[in-house]
Write a structure and sequence with these properties.
Helix 21 links the parallel strand 16 and strand 17. By secondary structure, the chain is α/β, with parallel strands linked by helices. The protein is elongated and about 95 Å long. It has a seven-stranded mixed sheet with strand order 3-2-1-4-7-6-5, with helices on both faces. Strands 14-13-12-15-16-17-18 form a seven-stranded parallel sheet, sandwiched between helices. A four-stranded mixed sheet has the order 8-11-10-9. Helix content is 46%, strand content 14%.
């Protein structure tokens, strides 16, 4: 690991310098992940009377070092914090309440639970990280001796204690006995480096992590941590197994709340899950208790009992999930306090020999976090097993973190999940005006969406826009031709790799041709039927098979047209195909009600904004009505009863209603969004 310290980039003020150093640390993934670790500095601020007062700035709980800002740090009065050095013991709740009383600004973020540790050590700058290389040494049966041998005697060793008052006091007492130390290694928890300034604490962090990395690399050159036991199945065989398993797996995991699943078959994952020692070491425990908040204490290691993996049925997979949940319930009952309630008992990480890894979460951002943490855990387990015997915290110690009131308190602060949170939908024709409007509104309301179109650049760019809009990974952009069964199957494979399943379909893809029947070519007629009717059939057939197998119900909305009840001249190919689409939707409603799958239809008219369709057919439709092209949109607006301009957002509102629980008792319905056309009133 290399130092990236640049004196010319450092702000002059203490807080600005702390933010700079924190971001340098956070940008090194091997030093910590997703809110882990904390940093601090000490300085002075004027009190209410303008007199200088000693202050501690420390990272707020849950903030991520990588992209932290000054607002993510809390400033606390140092003097009252130092008085706690005389206390023998203190509950977590009392400590947190005391920290709140020491805040300069009561509106500051909640200080890190390790704030007292930062306060009591009489060094100006302190950095605490969960460095992979340090954990690889500290998570071995001879961790203390190994740390001393590799890192020298300027780092003190602290046996495992859960973060809080007791750990802060222990580090302070050890520091007083070793005042020349550079920091501490916390067993199964990471590295603390301190110094008289930020540059020193940062460089010490980099130095000791680099020493550990070099030692581990030298050991890897000498021996292999584990021989393989299984072989990775060919990619197509792995995907075939996922297609068979995932509907049942997602249904089982979604009993309390719907989850996404993401599949990971990167080489390092396959190497780990296929290793002979994997089942043993994976069940030892987390690389650090901080990881457990996103991955749970243990993964599920799928067993085949010596039989070929292909013999494992979906029901057999589900039974292993249920046994895991039962084991978690037993773990909870053995350690619980009277006022505690059990969290979701199902695994967040599933390791499958020969296949790879599945991670679960409310969306693809959460599953990616669990996967990233597991990648780091795999590296730590592998490295620790190379230099010694990998160890972890005990089940009771792990429970103390997993069900730690200070961490569970964060869950109470989370905002209510939006309407479509945890739901995954497929939208066809998503690069057009209506498709874009629907996708944006669904993402704004919490859904994860797979946006598809034949235009690769447009749909991939649109997915990126949606993810930036949401600030999370909520969209996947895929090329899909609705008339090509192989294209649909390829897209569906990507859907299940990324999200693990589907909950709804918005079937929107369409084309239009303007010509009277006597001038209409057979090719144009068949092309319209292929996209506007057969394309809806092929996509719906694939999705409904998945929804039935998944057993969680679902919803489908077909974007048809006002031209179904009220066709227009020179629009025969479009009107006939859209009528077939509407009839298809009605049959789907009839056939799938018993499976809890609702199917409804939206009939829009005259949606011009963002539409590529009107750019193509607009001049011809204007000619049909003997209008100049510039007046066509106005003509459509003036012919409806409300004299309203129909927008993509209007169609999106209708779609959201039909997908939501607000229409839970509605199926086979046609909803018009056309400003009111008497001839198109549903009959």
């Amino acid at each position: 690991m290399r130092s990236r310290w640049n004196p010319s980039d450092i702000p002059a003020d203490p807080l600005g310098s702390l933010v700079y150093r924190s971001r340098l640390i956070g940008e090194e993934a091997d030093l910590g992940l997703f809110g882990g670790g904390n940093t601090s500095t000490k300085g002075e601020l004027p009190d209410l009377f303008g007199r200088p007062e000693s202050v501690l700035w420390v990272k707020g709980s849950g903030a991520d070092l990588k992209d932290c800002q000054p607002r993510h740090f809390a400033a606390l009065r140092l003097a009252p914090l130092l008085s706690l050095s005389r206390r023998a013991r203190m509950t977590d709740e009392d400590m947190v309440a005391f920290l709140a009383c020491c805040l300069i600004d009561p509106k500051s973020p909640r200080p890190s639970v390790e704030t007292l540790l930062h306060a009591l050590i009489p060094e100006r700058d302190i950095d605490h990280t969960h460095a992979d290389a340090i954990l690889s040494l500290a998570n071995t049966s001879r961790g203390q001796a190994l740390v001393r041998r590799v890192l020298g005697d300027r780092l003190v060793w602290i046996p495992y204690l859960q973060p809080g008052f007791a750990l802060s006091k222990r580090v302070f007492e050890v520091y007083r006995r070793h005042p020349g130390s550079h920091g501490a290694v916390l067993e199964k928890h990471g590295l603390i480096a301190w110094g008289p300034d930020g540059r020193t604490s940062y460089l010490r962090t980099i130095r000791y992590v680099s020493m550990a990395e070099r030692f581990i690399a030298s050991q890897h050159r000498r021996k292999r941590w584990s021989a393989p036991r299984w072989r990775a199945l060919p990619r197509e065989e792995r995907l075939a197994l996922l297609r068979r398993w995932l509907p049942t797996v997602r249904r089982t995991l979604s009993q309390a709340r719907r989850v996404c699943l993401t599949y990971d078959d990167r080489p390092e994952v396959l190497e780990f899950v296929n290793a002979r020692r994997m089942p043993q070491v994976a069940r030892i425990g987390p690389a650090t208790p901080d990881h457990m908040l996103r991955t749970k204490r243990l993964p599920l290691v799928v067993r085949t009992n010596g039989r070929p993996l292909a013999s494992l049925s979906a029901e057999g997979f589900a039974r292993q999930l249920q046994r895991y949940a039962k084991a978690h319930a037993g773990y909870f009952q053995r350690a619980r306090r009277p006022d505690q309630s059990m969290l979701d008992p199902y695994p967040r990480v599933i390791l499958i020999p020969g296949v790879g890894m599945l991670t679960t979460g409310k969306d693809a951002t959460e599953t990616a976090m669990a996967a990233t943490i597991t990648h780091h855990a795999i590296r730590i387990i592998r490295d620790a097993s190379t230099v010694g015997r990998y160890t972890s915290v005990s089940a009771r110690e792990a429970f103390g973190v997993e069900y730690w009131p200070l961490e569970l308190y964060k869950l109470t602060l989370a905002p209510q999940e939006p309407e479509f949170s945890r739901l995954v939908g497929l939208i066809t024709g998503a690069a057009g005006g209506i498709g874009c409007g629907i996708a944006r509104m669904l993402v704004d309301r919490g859904a994860s969406v797979v946006v598809t179109d034949v235009k690769r650049d447009e749909v991939e760019s649109f997915a990126q826009e949606l993810n930036q809009r949401a600030g999370r990974r909520k969209a996947l952009g895929l090329v899909m031709d609705v008339t090509d069964e192989a294209s649909i199957e390829r897209a569906m494979d990507e859907v299940i790799r990324t999200f693990g399943g589907l909950d709804f379909l918005v079937s929107n893809a369409g084309i239009a041709t303007v010509a009277s029947i006597d001038r209409l070519s057979r090719e144009a007629w068949e092309r319209s039927l292929s996209v506007n009717a057969t394309g809806h059939f092929l996509v719906a057939r694939t999705v409904v098979r998945w929804l039935r197998a998944q057993g969680l119900g679902g919803a489908m909305v077909f974007i048809a047209s006002k031209n179904v009840p009220a066709p227009g001249k020179e629009f025969g190919a479009y009107s006939a195909a859209k009528a077939a689409e509407t009839q298809l939707a009605r049959i789907l409603a009839i056939e799938n009600g018993e499976h809890g799958i609702r199917v409804n239809i939206v009939h829009p008219d005259g949606v011009f904004e963002g539409s590529g369709l009107w750019k193509t057919i607009g001049p011809a439709r204007a000619k049909t009505y003997s209008l100049p092209p510039r007046r066509l949109e106005s003509y459509y607006q003036q012919r409806n009863l409300l004299k309203a301009r129909v927008l993509p957002s209007d169609i999106a509102e209708a779609v959201c209603f039909l997908l939501s629980q607000r229409s839970a008792k509605t199926t086979g319905c046609v909803l018009t969004v056309d400003g009111g056309l008497r001839e198109a009133f549903p009959r």
